[in-house]
Amino acid sequence: MSKTKFVLITSIDDDQEKLLSSLNGNQLEKFVLELDQNNSNKRNVFSTDEEICSSPSSSSKGTSTKRRKADLTCVICGGKAIGYNFAQISCESCKAFFRRNALQPLERIKCLYQKDLTNEIRCSIRSEMKQKCPRCRLLKCFQSGMRKDYILTAEEKHSKKQRLEENRRLRSIVQNSSNDLHKEKEEKTVKIESICPLSNEISPQLTNDDWNCLNQMRNAYTTACQSAPSASSMISLELAPDKISAFINTLDIQNFTAVKLINFLREIREFDQLDDHDRLILVKYNLLLLFLIRHSLTFDPRREICYDLEPHDIVSADQEAFALHCKSLFILCYGYEFNQTVVTLLNSLSQLTDRDPIVVQLLMLMMIFSKGLSADDYQEPLLNDPQRVFHAQSKYTDLLFRYFLEKLSFEQSAKKIALISEQLLKIQKVSRDFQLYVKSKVDLTHINPLMKSLLHLT
Question: What is the architecture, at CATH level 2, of domain 83-150?
Answer without folding.
Answer: 2-Layer Sandwich (3.30)
